[in-house]
Amino acid sequence: MATLTFTDTHCHLADPALSARSPDILAEAQAAGVCRFIVPAARQADFAAVLSLAERPSVLPAVGLHPWFADEFSDGLYSETACILQGNPRVWVGEIGLDFIRAADSAARQRQLDVFRRQLGLAKAYRRRVIVHNVKAAAAVAETVKTEGFGYGGIVHAFSGSLEEAQMLIRAGFKIGIGSLLLNPTAKKVRQAVQQLDLRDIVLETDSPFMLKDGVNTPANVCRIAEIAAQLRGVSTEEIAVQTEKNVDALWDAV
Q1: What is the CA radius of gyration of the chain?
Q2: Which of 7, 82, 133, 244 is least crowded, fewest Cβ atoms below 10 Å from its Cβ?
Q3: pTM, full prediction
Q4: For the chain, which domains are there?
Q5: What mean pLDDT is reported for the chain?
Q6: Rounded Cα–Cα distance for residues 143 and 217 (Å)
Q7: How far apart are CA 202 and CA 191, in angstroms?
């Protein structure tokens, strides 16, 4: 059988938990067949480190403000993001989105929505894909994408919702990021989604260095996620690898 290759479509390689031993992390990933990495920022302070990683052709960067930090949004951040997008056609917009568990009241939700709209507007203006954080907000994500007329797609990462929510997001133009939740046998919703979604709508991720209770997550774990997805679907890991890589290929190239 040919060597399987994978992409980790969401890994925070600029996070200190990984960047401190970046050569070892990347070598372990390569040894496991994980050869490409989509690396988002979470806040403005991350931008420079994320962009420096993108000097490697195997790394696709994204810059944006995570909804947890919506209060940090400013005209300066908007302008810097626009400048980066204008100067580098490989850069996506992310990690952006909505997290209605973290938003404790209607004012906080509105702030997240306003920031999400502004960043979608940038992605639309520069024809870039987006990486979307969605927690308990699938309907709002889909509606905002529709209202803003954003049509360049991207990935809704670390999916944890219902099958119906996944299908809603797919109709809005997104691939569904299946990640480290799959390593938890009790994560019933994401396991159902993996079993029932069209494989053409799925990509794989780790959300490294996060999501593991007992240690630091790394991109090499994409292989474990692929193996569990294959078991749940009753197919080979090779089939999972081949199709999910085709899905990433369709996103990776410039719009």
Answers
A1: 17
A2: 82
A3: 0.96
A4: 6-252 (3.20.20.140)
A5: 96
A6: 32
A7: 12
